[in-house]
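ok so for the tutorial part 2 we go from a plain amino acid sequence to predicted structure tokens. step 1 is just haveing the sequence, like this:
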Amino acid sequence: MTESNVLAKAACSALSEKKAEDIRIIDISEVSVLADYFIIANGANPNQIQAMVDAVEEAMAKLGQSAKQIEGNRQSSWVLMDYGDLIVHIFSREDRLFYDLERIWRDGRSLEVEEL
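step 2 — the prediction. this is what the tokens look like for a chain of 116 residues:
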């Protein structure tokens, strides 16, 4: 199992623990040099979104990882967390529908957590 797989599983688990909605994993390793995986999830309100961000940060810290960059803040409806080979996108429901990253990155391969 590669390091990016371990990170992706940990991020998905952290998001699930905070009741993230519609967690999607997209393997973009064959179509982009940006990262190996995108994880996309949404929350119902700003407090849940922040709890999801905090949970991912904590899970990554336990694996000795810190974000290279985080875009967004406590008032944001889209937070991007860059862990190198893993990029986590956490949206409000409305912004997720608006930006539709799944459509933009449809050349990537959708995965289930079990496939990591």
